[in-house]
Amino acid sequence: MFVVFLGAPGAGKGTQAAVIAKKLDVPHIATGDLFRQAVQKGTKLGLLAKSYMEKGALVPDEVTIQMLSERLSQPDCKEGCVFDGFPRTLDQAKALDGVMATLKSKIDKAIDIEVPDAELLKRLGGRWICRKCQTPYHQVFSPPKVKGVCDKCGGELYQRADDNEETIKNRLKVYHSQTTPILNFYKDKLVTIDGAVEIAKVTEQIVKAMRVK
Ligand SMILES: [Zn+2]
Fold it and tell me: CB 3.0 to 4.6 Å from 38: which of 33, 46, 65, 99, for a disulfide?
């Protein structure tokens, strides 16, 4: 089964995508990881992607699509995979359909994890990261034992500049405007999940909707 995960930043999309991939026993394909691996391996596409990332620019869709296409043609993706972080735009969704068609396959389900913006603001606004080891904390959901100090390495915790309220609101606005057309594009295979509940409950809903064990 080929599954696409949609959800705003902070909706828990990555977490759920990983869990569901495991349950389905198919690869979890996160585009961020795909980039990092390709860069590490120094593949042609990896180097190309790196040249954009170093400039702080977005990797163009055609590069991402080629990378996904290579990944999908590997044998472990034969029975399916879970996409995480892609597509983010309608153009990407259409391009992904094109890649799937060349592999004589299709996207079976699109899982949309919905969380109200007010809740997302609460989740995203309380993020703290360790300067040394990058361990993430949250002042409400997973606070460190000592305020401002990393449990693991004693490093100093800081808040990213883009985790302030205005920036988050803006990110959510961009997310909604880009995602609404995708939801429409996938309307025949769309499953809407309430993401404002605890993690296990979210998983439960997805499993039920997909009828996987
Ligand atoms: Zn640390």
Answer: 46
